[in-house]
Amino acid sequence: MSDSSNLFDKISNYLKLQEQVYAPIMMDAQAFEDATSAVVSAAPETSPEPNIEVKPEPKQEPEKPTRNLSKTPDQSLKEILNACKTLEDLKQVCELADDLKTDLPNTNLVFGVGNPNADLLLIGEAPGANEDRLGEPFVGRAGQLLNKILEAIQFNREDVYIANIVKHRPPENRDPLPKERQRSLPYLERQIDIINPKLILCLGRVSAHTLLETSAPLKDMRSKFHPYREKYELMVTYHPASLLRNPNWKRGTWEDVKMLRKRYDDLDCRP
Ligand code: URA
Questions:
Q1: If you measure from the C-alpha of residue 203 to the centroid of ligand 1, how many angstroms do you get, rounded to a whole number?
Q2: Which residue in 89, 99, 144, 172 could disulfide with 84, CB within 3.0 to 4.6 Å?
Q3: Superfamily of domain 74-266 in the CATH hierarchy
């Protein structure tokens, strides 16, 4: 075989390999738009979230005793939380914590879901009706869109960890109040430290404002990495529910999540 055909074969094999490795992530903005549009067009903007049967309803368990942990005289909340070494420990504490509740009665704890060792942690705002019913964050229409966004940057939902600022549903799906966010924060901070991710993605304004302690407009917080509690890199993007109302923000979201995926790869993160 001549030297030139040998070289041609080598180049052609190299290009095929590059294509296999990079093709999936080289989705362009239009492909991202297409991949995420099925959820957006699935229901009119004003319709309430449909009940999407993802899992059977959690069984009704007998009422558990509750305790206001912040008022425990012998042990401060911080000590209780620091004693939690696993997410399971922390979940048990959260189940008992009155101070995580909003003023909507009889809601379920929506603790968080995903890979407990994830290098990427996503933090939304608060559970809605579907999340409350199923005890899992982002299972409604916004959750379906979130899954598509994750798929577009080559993640499964199980590769990452997903939580919310507030762990119980607020009444009438209102934004969680500042006092509710503040009460929830020590629990969330412990959850973050147990997972110990390299990257955090705040979904929306409420999440970013709570963690970054700012009231800056969302557009000023996007497209960059913020140091968070000295240990973590945090990025902010649009909330998936806001993309359902404003599909023209998907272009910016795509830019953000591509940047996030690149940082994840550069830091040698693993699912
Ligand atoms: N919106 C959120 O912020 N979190 C959820 O879990 C669902 C919708």
A1: 9
A2: 89
A3: Uracil-DNA glycosylase-like domain (3.40.470.10)
Residue range 49-108, pLDDT digits in tens? 334 333 444 444 444 444 454 445 456 999 999 999 999 999 999 999 999 999 999 999
Q: Which of 138, 174, 180 to mutate to test the pocket of ligand 1 (most atoms within 8 A of CB)?
A: 138
Q: Do 131 and 157 contact (CB within 8 A), yes or no?
A: no
Q: Give the largest Cα separation in the chain, rounded.
A: 84
Those residues whose C-beta lies under 8 Å from the C-beta of residue 125, and which sit 6 or more positions away, are 164, 165, 166, 175, 176, 203, 204, 206, 207, 239
Instruction: Write out pLDDT tens, residues 184-208.
Output: 999 999 999 999 999 999 999 999 9
Residue 138 CB less than 6 A away from ligand 1: yes
Ligand 1 mean position, distance from CA 212 (Å): 19
